[in-house]
Amino acid sequence: MRTDIVEAGEFPDLAERYNVYAVPKIVINDTVEFVGAQPEPHFMRYVAQAAGVQEAPPTDE
Amino acid sequence: MPFLQEQDAAFVRTRFAQELRGDVTLEFFAPVTGGLALPGQDGAIAEYARQILAEVAALSPKIRLNVHSLMADPEAAKAFGITRTPATAVIGAQDYGVRFYGMPAGYEFATLLDLIIAVSQGSTAIAPHTRELLTRLSQDIHVQVFVTPT
Fold first, then answer.
1. Nearest-5° Cα angle at B132, B89 to A43
2. Which among B53, B58, B52, B121 is positioned nearest to B89, based on CA atoms?
3. Measured by CB atoms within 10 angstroms of the end CB, which terminus of chain B is less buried, N or C?
4. Distance between the two ends of chain A, CA-based, in angstroms?
5. B129 and A14: CB-CB below 8 Å?
6. For B129-139, what is each residue's pLDDT tens digit?
7. A with B: how many residue pairs have Cβ under 8 Å apart?
8. Does B103 touch chain A (CB under 8 A)?
9. Whether the predicted pLDDT of A61 surpasses 90
10. Number of folded domains in chain B?
11. What's the CATH code of the domain at B115?
12. Is the pTM of this model over 0.95?
């Protein structure tokens, strides 16, 4: 897994390509995207979706 | 003029002293280095980003800053997967794959500090469920987080 933190204003071509109108905007594998900080289980659901992995329901820790 | 006020520098120095464990290297890539600056805004931003990182690195003996030029050192850029500048690879005992593109100012300065500390500690407080899901991933995951300093 690799993660790029991108200052949207300094890379307008990327901001345009990924339609960044609000931040934080998260794009995973160019296919799954969402806006705003998400709780960890929600974030991981997006990761699973991007990876095509069947996601087990979150368990209470 | 320094980026950090003395009061802020003291705060960061204390936080680093308390929270850093292993050494961290900031691999910074600018369009050019060696006192030459690209004309225009891009060169100015890269130089400002380098200054911020230099001030941060000076606040702990555990942090080292390596400055590269994307043009002059394409091999290093390739090794860290850097194709754009300014870019910073934050490397600890291993490369956790996190890159910071742009100037780590404003709110993103706090992001940089958290990132340095996380990489230094080599561990995060992720949930067991997250850890389990990550082990089941068979393909590479590329996360891009778009931010602004305000």
1. 60
2. B53
3. N
4. 24
5. no
6. 999 999 999 89
7. 129
8. yes
9. no
10. 1
11. 3.40.30.10
12. no
pLDDT, tens digit (0-9, with 9 covering 90-100), for B6-16: 999 999 999 99
Task: Give CA separation, B70 vs A41, B28, B29, B83, in Å.
Answer: 37, 9, 6, 8
Q: Which domain holds residue B64?
A: 6-135
**CA of B131: which chain A residue's CA is closest?**
A44
Does the CB of A48 have a partner CB in chain B at under 8 Å? yes
| B83 in contact with chain A, both atoms CB, cutoff 8 A | no
Question: Cα B41–B46–B52 angle (5° rounding)?
Answer: 125
A2/B130 CB distance under 8 A: no
| Domain segments of chain A as ranges | 8-51
Note the ipTM here.
0.91
Token reading at B62: 């555990």
